[in-house]
Amino acid sequence: MPDEPRPERDAQAEKNEGPASDPGETLAGETATLSPEGPQPGETERRPPVEATSPQPESASEAGLHDVTGALRSYLRGRAGSLARLVRAHRVAAAIAAFAVVAAAVAAIAALTAAPQFPARELVEQDALALEAPVYAPGSFGHDDILVAREAEVRSIAAGDQRETARAEVLVTYLGSYVKAEKVTTIGYALSEGSWVADGSSEDARVSWSALEGPDAGKIVSNVGVLLARADQQLSGQGEDGDATLEQLYQGANVRLDLLEFDSESGSCSMELTCTKTETFEAYECRLSAGLAFRSSNGKWELERLSVADGGKTRSLEPLVGTWSGTFVSQATDGTKCLAGRPSGLSLNVESTRTEGGVTQATGTVSGVAHYHGHPSRDAEGCPGDLTLTEVPFTATLVDDEDGTLVLEATLPEDVDGTTTLTLRLGEKDNPAAAVAELTSSSTQTGSILFFPVEETVAYADTFSLVRTA
Residue 328 and residue 379: Cα distance in Å, rounded? Predict the structure, then answer.
């Protein structure tokens, strides 16, 4: 019997609730045949069973991903098109942007090939070594020396006060044989045609000196007057007014350097000197002990301390020691003369001299003729009472030194017949080497006046010119 049409409500409900279970539905594993026209109205659609090899239906997430990807692709294609249209619409702006990029590249290349911001350290070192060496003034005691630049250390390089200028501070070391100098200076630079060039200026130069060796021994000796002048200041007021200064006494003196020790760590030097002034009849000796310090500020050795041994102004008659021969010159007396001393002359042997307590003496022996008699009736070659003196000892004392003449007097041992004195006059103002001895004999003689006996003193003074023989 044919199926009757279903009420419309039932059809709608069936649509919403899905197909109901039909006893005639194909079970799993069976094949159903579909009408070529698809489900007819009023019929329930039948789907074939899923084979193991057939494609699986997409899940909800995969379907969503496909949708997003497609939308993104569509968006990008749209933006790309818009960009292409924008470039076509703004070709001038693009050209300007491209030109700006090229210009920036050119500027970067130019910057890489342009002059450096500051002079190279190697250039500064080379220029520093070419600077003029500091002026070295050795002073009274230093060695003469020549300085040569040996090393340059660049301390800093900075921009100068003006545009395209620079300043470099350097330390230059100069070496000589006896001194070293370290000069800190600033070299100015100017940019010229893309290169840094020293402008020839050297500012704020500071020089520090140090000694490599001690002072010059030759200069110490030749400039001993500087030391003696300082010693005079220390001895000021110790002598009598009018006394010669040490510098005056030792002018032209012989100087012996007994000690010279150099301390490189402290830059100091200790020395001892002996100054001797020897003339024909007198001598002086002065011993000095001094310390010199090397000044880093000026490179000079300067006197730091000085002491003078006692006796620097003490006269010594040591040059008088020796044998002297006297030739008769003249005789002085109040009456007729007795010339017995002329043929024999005078012999003088000075054995030693000494100065103690300000008293200077010479000791020795003298040989000659003493006149212990009255005046002869006329000048005679000899008279009774002439006494030959043979190596009679004496001690002569310095009593005067006026006008460049040293005067020494000695009284010989007393004789029963009279007394004899020896006077030495050494040096003259116009003849410093002149030496004269006077042998004066005096005796008491008995005479008569109007037949009355009287006693009188008769003196003979024989003068001899002395010459050293040994």
Answer: 16
Greater pLDDT, 264 or 90: 264
Going from the C-alpha of 19 to that of each of 9, 12, 298, 415, the distances in angstroms are 15, 11, 123, 191
Q: pTM here? A: 0.64
Tell me: the pLDDT tens digits for 281-337?
Answer: 999 999 999 999 999 999 999 999 999 999 899 889 999 999 999 999 999 999 999
b/e map 259-294, b = 16+ CB within 10 Å: ebebeeeebbbebbbebebeeebbbbbbbbebebbb
The answer for residues whose C-beta is within 8 angstroms of residue 157's C-beta and 6 or more apart is 118, 119, 121, 124, 166, 167, 168, 169
Residue 342 backbone dihedrals phi, psi, to 5 degrees: -70, -50
Cα–Cα nearest to 458, from 442, 437, 447: 442
Residue whose structure tokens are 């250039």 = 123
Helices (H), 352-433: none
pLDDT, position 50: 39
The residue with greater pLDDT, 320 or 17, is 320
Average pLDDT, the chain: 80
Locus of tokens 């307590």: 357
Distance from C-alpha of 101 to C-alpha of 110, rounded to nearest angstrom: 14
Output the furthest CA–CA distance in the chain (Å, rounded).
237
Sheet of 254-263, strand order: 254-263, 268-278, 283-294, 301-308
**Rounded-to-5 percentages of helix, strand, coil across the chain:** 20, 40, 35
